[in-house]
Amino acid sequence: MNPSEEKDLNNWLIRSNTILQIAAILFALVFSAVILLMLGASPLDAFSLILSGAFGSSSKLAYVMTAWVPVLLCSAGLLVTFTAGLWNIGIEGQVVMGAVFATGLMQMLQDSFPPAVVLILAAFAGLLGGALWGMFAGGLRLYGNVNEIFGGLGLNFIAGSLTVYLVLGPWKRPGIGSTSGTQPFPPSLWLPTFKGFQVSPIEILLGLMAIILVGSALRGTHFGLRLRAVGKNLRAAFLKGISVEKHTLLAFGLCGALAGLAGWVLVVGTSSRHNLFPLISSGYGFLAILVVLLANLSAMWSVPISFFFAAISMGSLQLALQRQLDSSLGGVIQGMLLLSILVAKGLQSRLLFRRER
Amino acid sequence: MDFSVLIASVLAASPPILFAVLGETITEKAGVINLSLDGSLLLTAMAGFIVALHSDSIIAGFLASMAVGAFIALIIAFMSLTLHQPQVATGFVLTLLSRDLAYVLGNPYAHLPGPQVAHTPVPGLKDIPLVGPILFDQNPVVYLSFLAIVVVWAYMFETRPGLKLQGLGERPAAAFVRGVNVTAMRYVHTLVGGALVGLGGASFSLMVKPGWARPYGVEGTGWIALAIVIFGGWKPIRAALGAYFFVALQTAVNLLQSAMPNVPTQLFPTLPFPLMILTLLLVTIGNAEWMSRVLSRLPEGMQRCLIRTLKTLQTSPPASLGVLFKKE
Known about the structure:
Number of helices of chain A: 13
Number of strands of chain A: 0
Largest sheet of chain B: none
Radius of gyration of chain A: 22 Å
Number of helices of chain B: 15
Mean pLDDT of chain B: 87
CATH class of chain B: Mainly Alpha
Order of helices and strands of chain A: HHHHHHHHHHHHH
Distance between the termini of chain A: 12 Å
Largest sheet of chain A: none
CATH class of the largest domain in chain A: Mainly Alpha
CATH topology of the largest domain in chain A: ABC transporter involved in vitamin B12 uptake, BtuC
Order of helices and strands of chain B: HHHHHHHHHHHHHHH
Oligomer: heterodimer
Shape of chain B: globular
Low-confidence stretches of chain B: none
CATH architecture of the largest domain in chain A: Orthogonal Bundle
CATH topology of chain B: ABC transporter involved in vitamin B12 uptake, BtuC
Number of domains of chain A: 2
Structural class of chain A: mainly alpha
Shape of chain A: globular
Helix content of chain B: over 70%
Distance between the termini of chain B: 62 Å
Low-confidence stretches of chain A: none
């Protein structure tokens, strides 16, 4: 192949890639529109409802931004485990355990220390809770040969049972225990927000810092390189003297810690109910798995995609409130986007394969 | 409660998970993981209920569920076998997507009364003492589930395509050399497995848990089914026993609930899940390296006894499960 031909081929590949990606996004939208038509609803009405539900007012935008943070933190964590070639489906449970540890610590110390100290200590408790739960899944894989997908799922269920037990048992509200959760914390233990814009700068900063730190650590450090080696090829990494055991546990611990921090945000942050309740993780962890896969494991792309996904999730809540529709339509759009992008990726590599032959 | 009534109720509640486990066993035997079970079961349950309601035909409902299940499996097969994308990623997306689709499309049908599989005792056979009330005082779907275990077992171990299937998951290259069309065989078995999962979904909405709702109340079962496939060591009979074991566990937990009124009721449905992890640990821990080190230090009698127990429990997956096969 001479240079000009090669350049043509490259141009063609880039162009075909863009076209395929746009087609994939359009397909996901058309698919969702067809679903809406099947239900006798107007797609345009539903889509505009989602948009106005996400960006229609400053308070709605604030809501999206606070839902963005847990997804961002979980995405940062998942970048680590995915790089190490691990499927951390246990992330939901790690979020829950972060929330459990943070709540426990705050209940213990709220009367004896100033609020700021309690909040900071609770953040560390969240980090610890998530990290321990993550390393539990890692340990099951390493020492029990339990595939991390099933170990993680089982641990999700166990974390769920634990919150139900805590909320109805030892941590129940004075008087009646109910699944609506523990006694909410006083406003002094809420993260401070802007005046007139219900967003906590601390949350946003933490989320962005986490993904920037993880992104640059994975790209530019020796640690990132070793982690990638473990993810790409266990045997080669082993032969090079990289401890697979250590890196697996470390990856799970780091991801769990960031997920646990997301759990802390869900207890003290702006969008939270300021207490511990069953299902507190709200699917943010699973959503982050979709985000990171859609971003093709890029930290940079995870930032806008997680924001966009948070907007879809929050916006589609309006479908249930204002129309006779189920809010899961947001999930359909998100899932379909990823599925069709994966198809586009597959088609692209098929095309490439054909050209090479 | 009468013991035979108890066993009969376990058998009657088992078909959904049993069909799903058998279907996934076939799929994974061929070397493909259909991770979407938790979503597939919900979507096929919803589809079966709606079709049965509109057509007023239970059979149409079951067929629709099987078609939906096979279609989801087709996406997984196409993405993996034709487009060479990772199976776990596709399966995970389809889990969430199918679940959400079921909630969205099923929304207008929530809490509607609908058709249900009728109780059909087998005349004559049901009067056999002990066995009769357990096995033959059921409905056609339960009979079909018994039959399915036998058929899948016979197919896998007694027929030529079944034997080829064994090779497909273990050493696809060897199967290819012998003239087996690996990709086509994998497509077929993934689709058949998906259709069986669909049968499981319909058994939920038209029999065990008639109707539709959000949440439907069986969320999580698909993941359990995937774990039971591992527990079953990719063998149909052992997998079926695993399914019965799990449903028996659920029944036991329900009984426990009425026996222990002081414990919050919301806690009980979650109990089988931790137990599932423990059983999974039991069947996989024998493969761990440190285990053999620990065992070698024990006194000989105990060592032999433990090794034998672990070996019996131990299972290992088809060697090329989830691995792409490319003709070089």
